[in-house]
Amino acid sequence: MAFSDFLGNERIVTALRGALGAGRVPHALLFTGARGVGKFTLARMFAQAANCERLTDDSCGECATCLRISQLADPQELIEQGLVERGESADAATVERVPLILQSHPDVWALVPDPVRLKSPVARPMLRVGQLRAVQRAAYFQPMGRRRVFILDGAETMRWDVANVFLKILEEPPGSATLILTAPSPYALLPTIVSRCLQFHFAPLPPAAVEKILKDKTDRKPGEIKLAAQLAEGSPGLAMEINVEAASQSRRNALRILERAAHGQGFAQLFADTSALAKDRDSSFEEQLSIFYGLLTDLLELTSKIKEPVLRNAPLARELESLSQFVDSGWVLRAIAGFDELYAGARRNLNRQLGLDGLAASLAPDPSQALVSRG
Question: Is pLDDT at 370 greater than 70 in this prediction?
């Protein structure tokens, strides 16, 4: 798969090709952007191009090296293989002693958040200290090919105390290796790590481009394709895997929580809704929060009286318009700030149920009365 096959974010592709062609490859890259927008895919393509046996600034897709690295295109099989080899009943010590590392070529490693077990994975997989220490040791080995590449997917899942292990590599970077971190936002990482990386932010693709990908690669019906492209918010990877009905329902549920909070009514049902959200195991808490952020972004555009707002949740346009008549931009900004605090608290093991309840109550017209109503 050549760079020309990558869809969207052409400026990033051009910059990476230029670095490879000039032989001035950065020691650390940070790819940020929404899930499914292509961060891991481009990191893997960069690893192929950095080691291709025929080309210097791209991958031929045919040499033995390119073919081996291309096996990372679908990492799930390698993840399952690694978990089976480690054992389903692995304890904490074994998880750190036998880190989950995806490797189809000696010079290219991919690290993903470790789910610990195959049959009963943990609720929140994360990059673990054993994985980072393995990279710390291997980064200074000389490559068999041209360059060693280490991809740390989901870098935001590193605990900040554990991230200091990784920071040591960036402070004394190996000359023949490149470390690529992927994360939704640079603010989810330690500032000291971000400052040592060359940053690239992946913009969402236009809906028309996502629709074209779905038409070419799926057998979905036209109506479902259009809705999937809207719900995916410019993320082709998410559009490919999204359950349209479930995703639509999740957005309706989240909007209902915002409506009840804004009106300060029906708190018994409101807290029942937040309880159901906090207990949902089908999606991560971060994914749930991203739904709220999308709705609030739409509300901010509507309350700011933008002439032609481009709504991320177009199927809910009527409900969003109705809510925007009841709240103002100040309310929306308070809600966004509240979800920012909730996101930060989740990283410190804040009780999600209480956090959601407190935030919903604080957005009511009379928060003190709302808390009394709950009691």
Answer: no
